[in-house]
Amino acid sequence: MKTLENKIALVTGSSRGLGKEMAIRLAEQGADILVTYNTNKTQADETVKEIENLGKKAFAFQLNVADVNSFDSFFANIKNKLEAHWSTSKFDILVNNAGVIAHEMIEGTSETTFDNLMNIQLKGPFFITQKALSMLNNNGRVINISTGLARFSLPGYGAYASMKAGIEAFTRYLAKELGARQITANVVAPGAINTDMNKDALENNPELEKTLSSVTALGRVGVAEDIGGVVAFLASEDARWINGQRIEVSGGMFL
Q1: Alpha-carbon span 28 to 141, nearest angstrom
Q2: Which residues span the domain enclosing 24?
């Protein structure tokens, strides 16, 4: 049985990598998908095509999560598409996935790097969610993406992990404030994942993958397919009583 039939999900950064896998898994469970991309429309269109091949509706929208001033026009476009193709102005599931990573020791972190991480990883999701709330159906879902690095510490990720720790606090406040509307808010925190974001680092340094595998109970680095199903579960009715929680999906890193 498809658990998300007749639901509509907005997944940021879903043209590739983890976001694409989340979008596909949500579609497999019956949801229609609003895909977003920053610069690569071709990849976004390919994701849309894959979702349509599953028999679901999908549309791609350009979104720079660092540009808060663009959010009003972005959601106006979303609303127009919803009204034209679903005869509604509402959707059901928001997944704040879009992001970047930076590897710099605290001593060498520039203000430019810090501000970029802040805008994309924390400020962007905060105000995207704020703008989305009036369009999110009651009994809906907000799923934010964090990182295992907000629990354990590896040198060079201080700024990045600090933003993700902020997202985790934000999620708990969302859960509290949206409870009256029966909207749940949860965090999925992946561990080390071999995606586009980390591919070069892993391929250029075989010892890194070996090291990461050695500190993971299941003995390997994760792949995108390990994450999407967890997001789809949290979006489902089966997860209706999970709220304000951080679900780490890391294969058991640093237990």
Answers
A1: 17
A2: 8-192+226-249
